[in-house]
């Protein structure tokens, strides 16, 4: 296993950070590494808001569901899907542009995710830890107002970055056979593989919490399909100029 694969397979979410700032030069280097990710048609449909103001960090921590590490991390970044810059560039070049296409929403969201993951790997290679914050989509309108995001820009997720002050175990992943399929989507063994993974995660949670967390993967999924559906996102995205067509 080469060092890059070893680094990728050692990823953990870090939620406790040392009181140590990230040098500006390093942060810029990480963002440049992020920019080197693949991007659809070279659109580069993303922008990053580096939230420095402590009061804004506290507000976002609250808006994201009371995640205190948003405020305490060495740096906090908000990754935004951004079709404003590219659309306006095409318009200035003489195109009669069409806005609000669902494909534009997909391109911008995927570009943003790819860029962020490049940045994440670069950060971990420098000894930093990180945690993605999808909770900013709990209140995307308030976050957008706070960061003064214009139309055709929306906040996809945040990222806490900093020097780790904890050393959690690597969380298990689904069995390879459940996600790597050949020639067609074959789900015949999925139920057995998920049951096997539920047992793995049950043991993991019990060991990690000293017996205080008695659950498994399937149980943990329930809120994502019941209480965490974020039904407001469709209207919010349409209000931002995305996915209207």
Automatic annotation (TrEMBL):
This is Oxygen-insensitive NADPH nitroreductase. Pfam families: Nitroreductase. Keywords: Flavoprotein, FMN, NADP, Oxidoreductase. Transmembrane segments: none annotated. It comes from Marinobacter fuscus. Belongs to the flavin oxidoreductase frp family. InterPro entries: Flavin_OxRdtase_Frp, Nitroreductase, Nitroreductase-like. GO terms for molecular function: oxidoreductase activity. NCBIfam families: PRK10765.1 (NF008033). Residues 9-163 form the Nitroreductase domain.
């Amino acid at each position: 296993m080469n060092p890059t694969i070893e680094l990728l397979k050692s990823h953990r979410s870090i939620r406790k950070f040392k009181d140590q700032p990230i040098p500006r030069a390093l942060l810029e280097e990480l963002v440049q590494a992020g920019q080197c990710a693949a991007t659809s048609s070279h659109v580069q449909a993303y922008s990053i808001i580096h939230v420095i103001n402590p009061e804004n960090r506290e507000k976002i921590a609250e808006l994201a569901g009371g995640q205190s590490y948003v405020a305490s991390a060495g740096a906090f970044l908000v990754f935004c899907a951004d079709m404003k810059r590219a659309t306006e560039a095409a318009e200035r070049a003489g195109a009669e542009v069409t806005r609000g296409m669902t494909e534009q929403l997909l391109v911008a969201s995927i570009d943003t995710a790819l860029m962020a993951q490049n940045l994440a790997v670069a950060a971990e290679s420098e000894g930093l830890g990180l945690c993605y914050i999808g909770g900013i989509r709990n209140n995307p309108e308030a976050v957008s107002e706070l960061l003064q995001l214009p139309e055709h820009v929306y906040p996809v997720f945040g990222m806490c970055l900093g020097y780790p002050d904890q050393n959690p175990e690597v969380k298990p992943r689904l069995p390879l056979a459940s996600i790597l399929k050949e020639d067609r989507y074959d789900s015949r063994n999925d139920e057995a593989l998920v049951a096997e993974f539920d047992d793995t995660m049950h043991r993991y949670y019990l060991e990690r919490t000293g017996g205080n967390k008695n659950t498994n993967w399937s149980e943990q999924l329930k809120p994502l399909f019941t209480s965490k559906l974020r039904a407001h996102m469709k209207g919010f995205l349409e209000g931002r100029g995305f996915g209207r067509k």
